[in-house]
Write a structure and sequence with these properties.
Elements: H1 2-44, H2 59-121, H3 130-160, E1 167-170, H4 171-189, E2 192-196, E3 202-205, H5 207-223, E4 230-235, E5 239-245, H6 251-254, H7 270-273, H8 278-288, E6 293-298, E7 301-307
Parallel strand pairs: 2-4
Antiparallel strand pairs: 1-3, 4-5, 5-7, 6-7
Length: about 300
């Protein structure tokens, strides 16, 4: 009888204890889930400070770790995509700027040739002297052809950059082939070229692209060096250095020297300043293959350095 009398009280006490422990356990179970839910709401808004707290090593702790890992991976992917978008935007804008500059540069000689030919056909004024102005037209056409060739080479860079495989190449053999034609040009112009190539120095480079870049630098050096002055080509601690004696460029010119069609003020004429694409193409090639370079002035002229 005593047991029966106490049974309702014991049942009530057990029920109260069960409810208390159930509430405690549910609170302990739902609290981290609530924190994860709030953190994921912030993650949904791409809050970079959002993170799930990890306070245990059980299944909920593992879930929080996985959510954090997934979110960091998502942020990393978003950052990479944004970098690619920015890069594509810069490339597209550079293409637009390049085409605008190219159209302007091409328009000038075309207009000049058209003007002279029209006046020669109509025998207007001094243009009746065909023997004088036909060679000038031919010279402008040759300059135009050279410029178009340079523009085509530049346009190919956007399609073929890094298409050529990087190879282990003996630097002395490669440079000997590249330098050979410029030795003849320098001799014709009365320039003095000092060449000191390394023995058995092998570098990992794309041979054709690297040769094109070096050829443009040599062409630039030959064009801007006066008769009787020196051009030096040598290596120093795995650096290829090309120096030419000339009037050093001022800082304001060096800031723009790698821009397409840029020519310093003293060489704005195409017959002395070239098309303005040589160093631009060189910079594009070396940048595409992640080859460091520098172009600086020194006491006697200009120095182009390629770091291998």
């Amino acid at each position: 009888g005593v047991v029966l009398e106490l049974l309702p009280f014991t049942l009530l006490i057990c029920l109260v204890i069960s409810v208390v422990f159930a509430l405690f356990y549910s609170q302990k179970l739902t609290s981290p889930i609530t924190h994860i839910s709030k953190a994921t709401e912030r993650m949904e808004k791409l809050d970079r400070q959002a993170v799930c707290e990890v306070n245990s090593e059980d299944e909920i702790g593992k879930l929080a770790k996985n959510v954090n890992s997934l979110y960091q991976s998502l942020l990393s992917t978003i950052d990479n995509l944004q970098k690619e978008i920015d890069h594509v935007s810069v490339v597209e804008q550079s293409k637009v700027d390049f085409m605008r500059a190219a159209s302007h540069e091409l328009k000038t000689p075309v207009t000049a040739v058209s003007f002279m030919l029209d006046n020669m056909m109509m025998d207007v004024g001094k243009f009746t002297d065909h023997d004088t102005y036909l060679p000038k037209c031919k010279e402008l056409i040759e300059q135009l052809s050279e410029m178009i060739s340079d523009i085509l080479d530049t346009s190919k860079l956007s399609f073929s950059s890094q298409d050529e495989n990087v190879q282990a190449v003996p630097l002395d053999d490669l440079l000997t082939k590249v330098i050979a034609p410029y030795l003849l040009i320098a001799k014709t112009k009365g320039l003095l070229i000092d060449v000191k190539l390394p023995d058995a120095l092998t570098v990992n480079i794309p041979p054709d692209a690297f040769s094109k870049a070096v050829a443009n630098v040599l062409s630039n050096a030959v064009n801007y060096t006066s008769s009787g002055r020196h051009i030096r080509i040598y290596t120093e601690k795995r650096k290829l250095i090309i120096e030419n004696e000339c009037t050093p460029l001022a800082a304001e010119h060096l800031e723009h020297i790698f821009e397409p069609f840029y020519r310093p003020d003293f060489s704005r004429a195409r017959n002395s300043g070239g098309s303005g694409l040589g160093l631009y193409i060189t910079a594009q090639i070396l940048t595409a293959y992640h080859i460091r370079y520098s172009f600086v002035a020194f006491e006697q002229g200009m120095r182009f350095t390629i770091f291998s």
